[in-house]
Design goal:
mainly alpha; Rubrerythrin, domain 2; Citrate Synthase, domain 1; Cytochrome p450-Terp, domain 2; three-stranded antiparallel sheet; 18 helices; 51% helix; binds s-citryldethia Coenzyme A
Length: 426
């Protein structure tokens, strides 16, 4: 196999090194292209561009594979917990029992947020979207924990603070949005049970921890924990490359995830399925709109930049929906509509020809509804799940001795040199 590629331009041939990954992926290293040829590359949306070398997550879009530090996500969903998976992503190895216990204690020790932060919530309009609140509040954490992140020990403290306090901030925003008393984290509860308790416990009706829900939430967050260089992870890396603090970089990731083409799709899927239900289950109109080139409507929860086959996470999510709804005797008409929609789409040439399959967001909202999570908080749930991935990816770039400021080039197509015309002569 050649370990270089040749480019011939204006009669000259240039050799560029080819980099090969542990799973056989190959890339042309173009870091010397401009200096050798005067050329840059152009790749809107970066569909053909690798931004970094990473050892955290591997996806195969053709085979529908997803592995965190080499471990298939199916195995982690079956055997692991979200806390253990977060440790794996951030530290690169599965923890020993002692390491996991110490990590869990650290998460619990850092689960409270400063009382003054509750005042911030009072000033958001009640109808504020929880993603905008979360992004602002995570950024605000820096004001309460201004330590520089220069040494390992401070970085690790910031990491556990972020993992633990972001979950507390999310539950707080829900309680305050409903005008209910804020429920504090409990040190006797593990990560996921603690969140459900903060969300649903109340002085008048104590919340009974439901083991099925806790397991489902662990799996939900494991499935969302990392996903290579997606839009929000790239935002964390790009913002982090300016050497800003980790809270600000994660806040940028939360903002990037909010969009309906990215993490906001889980909320958009439920809104789409609810509309279909309202229109008497009229799926055909939705399919027609999704296929209409002149209609900007997209089938939400379908399609993916990398997966050109079934998203492995969607498979697990769909099975979990069946299992949890059956166990809890919940009959959600939106699940039947989702399955019908999937069946029609997967047998329609437009979706087959475009390699459009359900992605992680297609069924995730059904599961969140069964947990009692309000639709507007679905993307917040995605953000909490993605936190370990964002942090691991930020750490990997910060640990890279060649960590550079991200600053892409462009091809300019605006006016060439133009004279300034004084206002009275225009
Ligand atoms: C996430 O990157 C990640 O890893 C993201 C994520 C993660 O874990 O971080 O997996 C999470 O963001 C999942 C994706 C959630 N978004 C949605 O479900 C929104 C609906 N999906 C689409 O908008 C779309 O599929 C994207 C944005 C996900 C991917 O779009 P691409 O790769 O930019 O592809 P494209 O928009 O260029 O579409 C290619 C073709 C087009 O048709 P042609 O013009 O070539 O004929 O496919 C069509 C599109 O019209 N198409 C769809 C479609 N998605 C693509 N047509 C109808 N419905 C859709 N959903």
């Amino acid at each position: 196999m050649d370990n270089y590629a040749k480019i011939t331009y204006e009669g000259k041939t240039y050799k560029l090194p080819v980099v090969k990954g542990s799973e056989g992926e190959k890339a042309i290293d173009i870091s010397t292209l401009r200096q050798k040829t005067g050329l840059i590359t152009l790749d809107p949306g970066f569909a053909n561009t690798g931004s970094c070398i990473s050892s955290i997550t591997f996806m195969s879009g053709e085979k529908g594979i997803l592995r965190y530090r080499g471990i298939p996500v199916e195995e982690l969903a079956r055997h692991s917990t979200f806390t253990e998976t977060a440790y794996l992503l951030i530290n690169g190895v599965l923890p020993t029992r002692n390491e996991l216990n110490r990590f869990s204690v650290l998460l619990n020790d850092n689960s409270l947020v400063h009382e003054d932060m509750q005042i911030f919530y009072q000033n958001f309009p009640r109808a504020s979207h929880p993603m905008g609140i979360l992004s602002s509040m995570v950024n605000a954490l820096r004001s309460f924990y201004p330590e520089l992140q220069t040494v390992e020990e401070e970085i690790n403290k910031t990491v556990t603070r972020l993992l633990s306090k972001t979950r507390t901030l999310a539950a707080m925003s829900y309680k305050i949005s409903r005008g209910h008393k804020v429920i504090y984290p409990r040190t006797d509860l593990p990560y996921c049970a603690n969140f459900l308790n903060m969300m649903f416990d109340s002085p008048v009706k104590p919340y009974r921890i439901n083991r099925d829900m806790v397991k489902a939430l662990n799996v939900f967050w494991i499935l969302h924990a990392d996903h290579e260089q997606n839009c929000s992870t790239s935002a964390v890396r790009v913002v982090g490359s300016g050497r800003v603090n980790l809270y600000a970089a994660i806040s940028a990731g939360i903002a990037a995830l909010w969009g309906p083409l990215h993490g906001g799709a889980n909320q958009a899927v439920i809104e789409m399925l609810s509309d279909i239900a309202k229109n008497g289950g009229d799926i055909d109109t939705v399919i027609k709109k999704a296929k209409d080139k002149n209609d900007p409507f997209r089938l939400m929860g379908f399609g993916h930049r990398v997966y050109k086959t079934y998203d492995p996470r969607a498979k697990i999510m769909k099975k979990m929906c069946d299992k949890v709804l059956k166990k809890l005797k919940i009959n959600d008409p939106l699940l039947d509509i989702a399955k019908k929609l999937e069946e029609i789409a997967l047998n329609d040439n437009y979706f087959i020809d475009h390699n459009l399959y359900p992605n992680v967001d297609f069924y995730s909202g059904i599961l969140l509804r069964a947990m009692g999570i309000p639709t507007k908080m679905f993307t917040v749930m995605f953000a909490i799940g993605r936190l370990p991935g964002w942090i691991a990816q930020w750490k990997e770039s910060a640990d890279d001795p060649k960590w550079r400021l991200s600053r892409p080039r462009q091809i300019y197509t605006g006016p060439t040199k133009t004279k300034y015309i004084p206002i009275d002569e225009r």
